[in-house]
Amino acid sequence: MTSFSHAHTDKDLKRLRQFLAETLKKSGLQIPGQAADGMQLLNLACGRADETEVLADVFGSESDSIHLTGIDIRTREIGEARERWKKLPSKVSADFLVQDASQLDRLKQLNNEFDIAFMRHQNFWNGDTTWTKIYDEALHRLDDDGLLVITSYFDHEHRLALDAIQGLGAELVCSERNSDSRIITDAPNKSVDRHLAIFRKP
Ligand SMILES: C[S@@+](CC[C@H](N)C(=O)[O-])C[C@H]1O[C@@H](n2cnc3c(N)ncnc32)[C@H](O)[C@@H]1O
What we know:
The protein has one domain: Rossmann fold, CATH 3.40.50.150. Strands 3-2-1-4-5-7-6 form a 7-stranded mixed β-sheet, sandwiched between helices. Helix 4 (128-140) links the parallel strand 4 (114-119) and strand 5 (142-152). The protein contains 5 helices and 7 strands, in the order H-E-H-E-H-E-E-H-E-H-E-E. It is 32% helix and 25% strand. It has 202 residues and is of the alpha/beta class. Bound molecules: S-adenosylmethionine. S-adenosylmethionine (SAM) binds at residues 45-47, 50, 71-74, 77, 100-102, 120-121, 123, 130. The site of S-adenosylmethionine (SAM) has 16 residues, from strand 2.
């Protein structure tokens, strides 16, 4: 079903699938959204949304249906996501929207009842005010038992994000370092899905 534009993507996604599943299990949390009306997942700053199928499988394994809403500010990446995920398994549906995720209140079609808000490779170092706003929007879009899940490339950036999200009132459930994360050779101390953290509403 999928072909990716980068050679490493398949293996990176395999590792993400395992890391996500293991961390969720370790957290002891019940994945929300298992009710008959299905799961709603918000993938913020999703870029090409390579991880769409992984998210549907890991978070939606016990759900009858799962809907993913991917949002990114870049038109080209969203175009690629739409093209790649035109066909999905019958219980999965997805929308990909070009939108500034720090201004989700402008998106009238978005409800406030997401079970999961996910953000892969958040970019806190690249504008702390914008990213704090994106985290805030994500928390506001969650159901009471919803979860916010982030991954990070860098140690320092991850710590900044943990502080910012807890500063917004979310409870850090767990944060794990991925020992199997692929090192990015041209960027010192950066690796793919290096850290993963799960938060819930207080
Ligand atoms: C490091 S990339 C991660 C992309 C994707 N999640 C991944 O892991 O491949 C960060 C993404 O944040 C997006 N982004 C930056 N600011 C944004 C904003 N205000 N609203 C929505 N997306 C934004 C960028 O366009 C980019 O796709």
